[in-house]
Specification:
Helix content is 12%, strand content 25%. The radius of gyration is 23 Å and the shape is globular. α1 (7-15) crosses α2 (26-50). With 679 residues, it is α+β, with helices and mostly antiparallel strands. It binds MU-OXO-diiron and calcium ion (CA) (2 copies).
């Protein structure tokens, strides 16, 4: 397409499979999506009533917001005794009774003493580089002082995944229209967006009154951006010929990271951050005969959502065809040292990294679990060569540079085989386009499919249960999954058992004897998401789950010190048909007779996504991130009845000030009067 895609179109584009023989073309996906959206606009009220939501869908502002409605009491013997919410979709957030929320930090808030005040009508890159970035996603908490177990003082590590240009920047969408007039888009605007990407490190503290605050001007505060932060490539692919560009003949120095979705905190207190939908940042199109064509096609490159390539040659693949190979990695950042150069870890492979979840294995090796979020992509695991030494942080910081990358094959008999991606083994040879290990890592997707990995329903976050050692991976949805008897490459399989799956599932991976490095695990389905009252969804929640407790499209996972699993949802533009309610955070039972029971704890404002759930070590504080409030499919909530724009968003959360656009923000949740969150 010549014009950059809108947010809705990009959502459909991201859903398009690039794995071979997988499904419809982008055009077909888009037509289906847009067609359905138009139908749904007329049918919204009916859908809401059918879902039992009724008047809660009537738009109202925080000022008019009474206490959040409470639903069913908890089933006896459960781990989540709070009174759960009644599912709604409105302009503000909600938390279960007995809890309180506080907005900790918002897009544009000043991080440094010299940071300018937030001026949404006068945004500059220089100001944004000194302010909290856009679309907060992953949240990690590392304690201060370093090495302590402090639960009241620490550093929050925050991904700023992407930008919603038309809601972030003023004046781009002509009145009465839904599409940006790109003739109005300038180099300065591109630089503002690049500055708003990346990450923030920010010192946070709990005061004597129990309230949290961030520390403006802390010596630890840092902005990592797509505009000016220099990264070092490390590991087997660093310096590879395919990673060299005209600006970097070494193949070892990259400017910026972008589309960093989820992540993880290592046992040595560094912050891992996954680069996900990197295709959106490149424009142009290389020739079909170009040596990188196979690689670009498999990553969906380039899809041009952010047309920075109009102003910067490195984002135009005709000019720099190898630049995209320098993105799509897991990044490691030392939050305790703001001067330390962040690194991209090539040993962990290149794909659309949702996140990276590290765990120290019994033998001291470090295992990192990773999902690749696109239809029919795979679940991965990295096992370090070296061993973790609690007394040698410097050595630990090199552990993720060397080891073996594996990809999962989920067999119908309940075994999970981890297949190594090692050059020269099996089909990973020059005849198949892999000249060395660097090629295998740069094109990990192609290698993984070639060795026979299972094609999954969009693998997202992974969480290792702190008590049982079981490992959970969310598969968010895959509308292109086909029925039994279809092409076996895209037909249902044991771990992805539903065709046209718009609800997703959670897979439980069980390491034998707790050995995360074992070649063979077993696996089970924890839950198939969707409305259990509608048999056609095939949902499999425990019958103790209430009409408010079931969910669709699981994405982020967190666990707490109580041994409880928490699930955040991202229904995207499909929220109306997926659940009819806004995204939220759910407690999820994993053991005992209540296994598979979910309970609704927190809901975002409409059009937002629940990201980054993160507990302090004492479980008395829960940080959540609200991403893109008032944006996704909010035509019933805008004044014009059209898609959200800066001038007319679906919500002005959290400020509810006519002069302020909606602002992605981090929210603190605590129990009123103190205590363990979610009890
Ligand atoms: Fe950025 Fe896969 O969610
Ligand atoms: Ca995500
Ligand atoms: Ca997602």
């Amino acid at each position: 397409m010549t014009l950059p895609p809108t947010d809705a179109e990009f959502d459909a584009l991201q859903d398009r499979a690039t794995s071979p023989d997988s499904g419809p073309t982008f055009g077909e996906v888009l037509q289906r999506r847009m067609g359905r959206r138009d139908v749904l606009r007329g049918a919204l009220a009916g859908t809401a009533l059918a879902a039992g939501l009724g008047p809660a869908l009537v738009a109202h502002d925080a000022a008019a917001q009474g206490a959040s409605a409470s639903g069913a009491a908890a089933p006896a013997g459960g781990s989540f005794p709070f009174k759960e919410l009644v599912r709604v979709a409105d302009r503000t957030h909600h938390v279960a009774e007995g809890h309180q929320t506080q907005v900790l930090i918002r897009w544009g808030d000043p991080l440094f003493q010299d940071s300018p005040a937030f001026d949404p009508l006068g945004q500059t890159a220089a100001a944004q580089l000194r302010q909290f970035g856009y679309n907060n996603d992953f949240l990690g908490f590392v304690p201060l002082p370093q090495g302590s177990r402090s639960a009241d003082h620490g550093l929050l590590c925050v991904n700023h995944e992407y930008t919603n240009t038309e809601v972030m920047l003023p004046g781009l969408v002509p009145q009465g229209q839904e599409r940006i007039d790109w003739s109005r888009y300038t180099r300065e605007m591109a630089e503002v967006e690049m500055a708003a990407h990346g990450a923030s490190i920010v010192e946070v503290k709990r005061g004597a009154d129990g309230a949290w605050a961030y520390v403006r001007g802390s010596k630890y505060n840092r902005r990592v951006s797509a505009l000016d932060t220099v990264f070092e490539m490390v590991g087997p692919a660093a310096g590879h010929n395919r990673l060299k560009t005209s600006a970097d003949p070494t193949g070892r120095r990259v400017i910026g990271m972008f589309n960093n979705c989820a992540g993880g905190i290592t046992p040595w207190g560094t912050y891992l951050s996954g680069e996900e939908n990197i295709d959106g940042y490149f424009v142009g199109k290389i020739d079909q005969s170009h040596p990188e064509q196979r690689s670009h096609d498999r990553m969906g490159l380039p899809s041009g959502r952010n047309p920075w390539g109009r102003f910067f040659d490195r984002f135009d693949v005709n000019k720099e065809p190898q630049e995209p190979l320098r993105y799509g990695w897991v990044c490691e950042i030392d939050p305790y040292d703001p001067a330390a150069m962040p690194r991209k870890l090539t040993a962990l492979g290149r794909f659309k990294h949702e996140g990276a979840t590290p765990v120290v294995n019994g033998d001291g090796r470090v295992v990192v679990y990773m999902g690749d979020d696109q239809r029919f992509e795979h679940v991965y695991r990295f096992v370090s060569k070296g061993r973790y030494d609690p007394a040698d942080r410097k050595a630990n910081m090199r552990l993720l540079e060397e080891g073996t990358l594996f990809v999962g094959r989920f067999d119908a008999d309940g075994t999970l085989e981890w297949l190594p991606l090692v050059h020269g083994q099996g089909p990973l040879t020059a005849e198949n386009g892999f000249r060395d290990q660097g090629d295998v890592l740069i094109d990990a997707r192609i290698a993984a499919t070639l060795v026979g990995a299972t094609r999954m329903d969009r693998p997202e976050d992974v969480e290792v249960h702190p008590r049982t050692g079981k490992v959970y991976v969310t598969l968010t949805n895959n509308e292109d999954r086909r029925p039994e008897g279809a092409n076996p490459l895209s037909a249902v399989n044991a771990a992805n058992p539903r065709p046209a799956n718009i609800w997703g599932q959670i897979v439980e991976m069980i390491p034998p004897g707790g050995d995360h490095a074992a070649a063979r695990f077993t696996w089970e389905l924890l839950v198939k998401a969707g409305n259990p009252e509608k048999p056609e969804t095939g949902a499999s929640f425990n019958p103790a789950t209430s009409a408010n407790g079931w969910f669709a499209c699981p994405d982020n996972l967190a666990s707490d010190g109580q041994g409880r699993l928490w699930v955040g949802t991202d229904q995207g533009w499909g929220w109306i048909r997926a659940s009819g309610g806004a995204d939220g955070l759910y407690g999820m039972e994993t053991e005992g007779p209540l296994r598979g029971t979910a309970r609704l704890f927190f809901q975002t404002p409409v059009g937002a996504e629940l990201t980054g759930p993160c507990f302090t070590p004492d479980d008395r504080t829960l940080f959540v991130a609200v991403q893109h409030p008032g944006v996704d499919n909010v035509e019933k909530f805008t004044a014009s009845g059209l898609s959200a724009t800066f001038e007319d968003p679906g919500s002005r959360w959290p400020d509810f000030d006519e002069k302020m656009p909606p602002r992605p923000s981090v929210v603190v949740i605590t129990k009123a009067g103190g205590g363990i969150v979610g009890t």
